[in-house]
Amino acid sequence: MRGVVPDQWDEPLAELFGAAFAQVTGAAAIVIGYDMRPSSPGLARAFARGAAARGVDVTEIGLCSTDQLYYASGALNLPGAMFTASHNPAQYNGIKMCRAGAAPVGQDTGLAEIRELAERWSGSGAPEPAATPGTITQRDTLKDYAKHLRSLVDLTSIRPLKVVVDAGNGMGGHTVPTVFVDLPLDLVPMYFELDGTFPNHEANPLDPANIVDLQEHVRQEGADLGIAFDGDADRCFVVDEKGDPVSPSAITALVASRELAKHGGSGTVIHNLITSWSVPEVVRENGGNPVRTRVGHSFIKAEMARTGAIFGGEHSAHYYFREFWNADTGMLAALHVLAALGEQEGPLSALVAQYDRYAGSGEINSTVDDQKARLAALKAAYEGRDDVQLDELDGLTVTSADWWFNVRPSNTEPLLRLNAEACDEATMAKIRDEALAVIRG
């Protein structure tokens, strides 16, 4: 749930969402956290009031990253609500909700019902309060969260590393100092001051413009690597010692190989359908079973639970771990990168080269008048060809022997999103341009 505050939602509506969350989950207790946006504390407290009025005991963990909230939900076995708009601009805020054990709340697992109740009550008035209201108490989980993450990656024998971290004035500035404490790291912090107005750049490292400062700092400092977190610090992006971005698919493959080794050289790894071909190849080479799924955290988490997967990765830099309640944590992925680099003497660029085998386009958005019509035209352009296969697991994917592309409609904007990959740059550019020509008419 996400929107502009106070134009699209405000504290009275947050209170109704708290009451609806309490009713839909049926929980006796919940946990709530929030990010550094100016509106977050008030919205979180309003949500707590709404839940407590329904008789639910509320534990407030205060300022936290989204994966710190997932930690609290898992460790305390409570449903949770995180107030954040992630990488969105300052005027936005939202709620990421989960059931006990960090299990997802998606459209088909409670979100639609929560929204319907809040909408109904906003017109007819709040429901009757419980005879005995719940309590609201505070608890600090930061050190326990850091301790749990550090227990999942062996960093005891890594060599000293110089790392530049760009927190983007987001929650990484809150969590990194505690998680990285006592590691053999020369930490160069950038924009660690918590500021939900994002005075330096948007906290969205997926946009290349927002990692320019990090790239320059890595080069200037002669650092071994750079790490950027988004606003709620649940995603991490990596640049190598040259300042060049490392593909999230390469990070997915690297972490997958480490998780498979940790689990005896076997296990299932989930990847969405726009990750590089490198990911399933590396998974198979390391004894694992790759499972392809739709884009989106609810689909990844559902497949993690269904298959008992040890790890899952998305090309958007969300990384999911069975040992973290199947939830996503960019911080744990960052620790894996530090461990992998620190366990050998070579530079990061050489380490990740084995996991980055193909030429990718990145995601290219096109504004269209009619998403369905453009997708149908694209399907018609490739249907019937002997050299390609088509599937519609998520949008349209067209696959040939040495290239593939996927086109997915945005759920919130009149956009089609193209991702293409091929064995070489020239082939990728040719396929990319052919697809864009049909998409854009």
From TrEMBL:
Residues in Alpha-D-phosphohexomutase alpha/beta/alpha domain copies = 1-120, 143-243, 250-358
Q: Which InterPro entries match?
A: A-D-PHexomutase_a/b/a-I, A-D-PHexomutase_a/b/a-I/II/III, A-D-PHexomutase_a/b/a-II, A-D-PHexomutase_a/b/a-III, A-D-PHexomutase_C, A-D-PHexomutase_C_sf, Alpha-D-phosphohexomutase_SF
Q: Which Gene3D superfamilies does this one have? A: Alpha-D-Glucose-1,6-Bisphosphate, subunit A, domain 3 (3.40.120.10), Alpha-D-phosphohexomutase, C-terminal domain (3.30.310.50)
Tell me, what is one Gene Ontology molecular-function annotation carried by this entry?
intramolecular phosphotransferase activity
Its domain of life reads Bacteria
Which family is this sequence assigned to? Belongs to the phosphohexose mutase family.
What is the name of the protein in this document? Phosphomannomutase/phosphoglucomutase
Supply the source organism for this entry: Streptomyces poonensis
